[in-house]
Amino acid sequence: MDQGVIASLLQHPLTSAVVLLDAEGRPLAANRAAQALELPRTVEAYAELMRDARERLLGGESMLACALPGTAGRRVDGWLRAVHDDAGALLAYTLSVPEPVGSDGATRWEIALDSAEHGLWDWDIPSDTIFRSERWRQMLGYQGDAPDYGLNALLPLVHSDDQARLREAIRAHFEGRTATYVCEFRLRQQDGQWRWILDRGRIVARTADGSPLRMVGTHTDIHEQKLLEQRLRDQQTLLREAQRMTSMGSWSWDPPQNRIWWSREFLRVTGLAAEHPPSSRGWLRLLSRESAAQVLATWRRMQRDGKQANFEVELVRGSEAPLHLRVWAQPQLEADGRIQRVLGQVQNITEQRQTDALIRWRTELLNRVSALGKIGGCEIEVDTRRMQWTEECYRIHGLRKETLELDQALALYTLDSRDAFEAALARIAQGGLPEQLDLCFHRPSGHRVWVQVLIELDDRDGLPPRFVVLFRDISREREASERIELLAHYDLLTGLPNRQLLREQAETAMHDAVERGSTLAMLFVDLDGFKSINDSFGHATGDALLKLAATRMHQQLRTSDLFGRFSGDEFLVVLRDLAEPSDAGHVARKLIAALAEPLHNGENVIKIGASIGIALMEDGRQDFDSLLRAADAAMYAAKESGRNTCHYYSQDVLLRAQRRLEIEHALHGALDREEFSLVYQPLVHAAGERAPAVEALLRWHRPGHGHCNPAEFIPIAEECGEIVRLGDWVINEACRQAAAWDAAGLHFDRVSVNVSAMQLRDRGFAERVLELCQRNNWSPKRLELELTESALIRDTESLRRCFELFEQEGVLLAVDDFGTGFSNLHYLNRFPVQRLKIDRSFVQDMLIDSGTAKVTQAIVQLGHALGMQVVAEGVETAQEEALLREQGCDEIQGYLHSRPLPPRELAAWLRARQGVLPATLPRLVLAAQ
């Protein structure tokens, strides 16, 4: 029972002395009147006498008169009552002693009438007349004479809820079922208020047949006591309910007698049987070993210092999960400091422990998730701008965990991010919606960090308004985004805008030029000879060349001009706001001059040029694609004009570009349509000692268009990728025709076929050549492949393996047009080349230019020095042949001996050379004439 509740109840001004006893009869509390009479000590001194009285009350009586020896030789007369709760369970006992009046010799009757505040009544039963004393009238508030109500007149004054109980108590006494009539009921006072009365009496006279005649008794005002008891019950109910809601129970322990008391709520909380509550030792046995040791240690400490204690214990419950209890213990001390009693409470904190563990787990999980997700948080008070940061927030910013002001944190951010953050705070503080920002700052280490920030205002719970800010590290995402942006819009090698970005920028510039009426030009720049350099020196050199070329060109342009890499070795320039159209040509020539500076690559000095096409934005060319086509066409015109120059777009350029596109389109499928054929030109031995050789030359007859010049369509075939398939067809057809001539008895040394550099670089080329020879029953030793010098410049492992295979199988190699390309003795000496062919340009000029004659002489001497034979191309006169024979040239090729002939005519030529001219030439199977 809560001691504070009891003490508060006994503060009421009762005229009687009242002592509250617990269920064991021990004094719990006393009012001032009882303390003045030293009633608590008297009760403890006569505990055995009080036990008998309590047992009688437990037997069924509700109140019992008792007399105890008092102090100074006086006797204490009072009333002992049992107090029960609504369920009938015993709560406590009360002992009340009326205020004594008169001398020590006063009679009990006088005390009852004058001192105990009892009213006397005398009931004449047959007449139903009741005599009442003045005290009775005073209790009910009557002044002067008041009617002597009989029972029937009294009943209407009794509370309706109590009338049945009153009748039953009188009937039971009349019938002899009770020795004394006792009843408590509420009686209406003169002012209409209800007052509790204890009515006691006994039949003092009966008729001869035993019927009651007279009954005498007392009325006792117990109103204050009943109110006290009701308040006690209410407080006890509230206490029990509060303990139930908080899973808290009460207990008390009497150390001298080692007796312990548990409240019902305690037993419910712990799940212990109410019928067999544990003793103090039994309680210890229910605890875990560690908890039992803790209880004993706490008790020893409490004995030493007499101070209250609180601690947690674990209650073991067999196979069930243990209970975690929080225990409070408050010692009550004797005057000498010894512990008289220990009062306490117990609360079941199992769920709280589980909840705390769950909260800790969730907090730890949240911290881990925040760390993994790189999400930090902080609160910023709106008025004071004070901040609270999470650990992850400190980590994101690269700071130690310490108090930090908002301005200190913002000092890390870039100016733009700082302004954006402050502006967002201002908008949200004025009622704006939550905002999300991407901000940038630099850690103290200098490392740049991007964060995504979510800001919202929290003004709930009556707390000061505060901003709740979440920070998420998006540095990697930002870097990836920037990388994607770079890949999508910039060329990684040169750092220049790529085709897509250049298109967007150019379209914007063209739109601006239309609106302002300004002049705009597009320059299409193609590096001359880049492919050969890239093939010869490798991709690393090619990449370095592209970067250098981009840098040099960029330096010649204005900041307002647009410049980017279009593809491969092609660049695009957009010139804005030109004063005159001719200014575009000036810029193009500056670019060509800048690129003309040689590039040093180790021991090699590399020179490149540029062909630049210029297109002005005019009527009909006001969109990007049309302007690009015009500039591209002008660039090809510049190449055809000799390269390393620029050319404006014109109608003629358009026609040539259309011609090129027309040829490229016609090339696709031309082989399947059998539009190609071979012609053959003999190579005559200068001394006439050997049979001539034959060179196969490709011809293309386009139905409806006539013959197309090889110098026109072969470069286009190389660019569009048709050359490999076309080249295989040429080798196959040449081998087939040569085998047919050989089978017909025609004598010639070998058949020669021109091969491009692209064919040599094609995987499996050597194997295909040998397979074609085998397919047509033609010896590889009688096949010669004519290569350009540029095809030999790129010294790669695959090229060496190709030539090694040719050398093993006897395939002959010749260098065509020697002296016009990248002549390099290293390559001539490294690869198995058997012949050099002097270009026709030297042969045509050697009779009129002594210098050129010296060149042809040097080529012949060089070839012989390297163990090679030398062939002269384009020989048209006997004088040219004579000079070449004089210089030591081994073979002569040209119109002097024969123009390129179809297969049937060449067969006749061979027969004529052999001196065998049959009447009828054998019919040969030819692929195309």
Automatic annotation (TrEMBL):
Transcription found in the keyword field: no
Residue intervals of the EAL domain: 660-914
Residues of the PAC domain: 181-234, 309-361, 435-486
Cofactor requirement: Mg(2+)
InterPro entries, per database record: Biofilm_reg_signaling (IPR052155), EAL_dom (IPR001633), EAL_sf (IPR035919), GGDEF_dom (IPR000160), Nucleotide_cyclase (IPR029787), PAC (IPR001610), PAS (IPR000014), PAS-assoc_C (IPR000700)
PROSITE patterns: EAL, GGDEF, PAC
CDD domains in alphabetical order: EAL (cd01948), GGDEF (cd01949), PAS (cd00130)
Catalytic activity of the protein: 3',3'-c-di-GMP + H2O = 5'-phosphoguanylyl(3'->5')guanosine + H(+)
Xref: SUPFAM superfamilies: EAL domain-like, Nucleotide cyclase, PYP-like sensor domain (PAS domain)
EC numbers on record: 3.1.4.52
An MF annotation (GO) of this entry: cyclic-guanylate-specific phosphodiesterase activity
Signal peptide (UniProt feature, chain positions): none
Keyword line: c-di-GMP
Uppermost EC category: hydrolase
Residue stretches making up the GGDEF domain: 518-651
Name of the protein in question: cyclic-guanylate-specific phosphodiesterase
Organism of derivation: Xanthomonas graminis pv. graminis
